[in-house]
């Protein structure tokens, strides 16, 4: 065995030997958390911010689609080379 494989094997054995199992706590599963009015106000404010940012996106998208549609409807112009 070369030094690299010995180091890798040693690291793997140390990791497996020192690893422990994490047990879930049973005490935290039976609690009921009730949100107060300030939490609901904060979440409402967050929703308002999201909606306020979506409105310009929809307007810009509508303008882009409208511009694309109107550019396809333009007719070709003939140029005289006199």
Name the descriptors.
82 residues; mainly alpha
Describe the overall structure.
- This protein is mostly helical and 82 residues long.
- 63% of the residues lie in helices and 0% in strands.
- It is built from two helices and no strands.
The biggest sheet, with number of strands, parallel, antiparallel or mixed sense and barrel status, is:
none
Structural class: mainly alpha
N- to C-terminal distance:
88 Å
- Mean of residue pLDDT values: 79
Shape: flat
Count the helices. How many? 2
User: Helical percent range?
Assistant: 55-70%
Using only C-alpha atoms, the radius of gyration works out to: 32 Å
Low-confidence stretches: none
The H/E string reads HH
Strand coverage percent: under 5%
Quantity of strands, as a count: 0
Task: Itemize the secondary structure elements and their pairings.
Elements: H1 3-18, H2 37-72
In a nutshell, what does this entry contain?
The protein is mainly alpha-helical and 82 residues long. The chain has helices at residues 3-18, 37-72.
């Amino acid at each position: 065995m070369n030094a690299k494989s010995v180091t890798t094997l040693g690291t793997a054995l140390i990791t497996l030997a020192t690893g422990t199992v994490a047990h879930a706590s049973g005490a935290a599963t039976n609690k009921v958390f009730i949100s107060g009015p300030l939490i609901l106000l904060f979440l409402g404010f967050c929703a308002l911010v999201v909606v306020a940012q979506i409105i310009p996106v929809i307007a810009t998208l509508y303008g882009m689609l409208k511009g694309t549609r109107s550019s396809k409807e333009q007719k070709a112009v003939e140029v005289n080379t006199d």
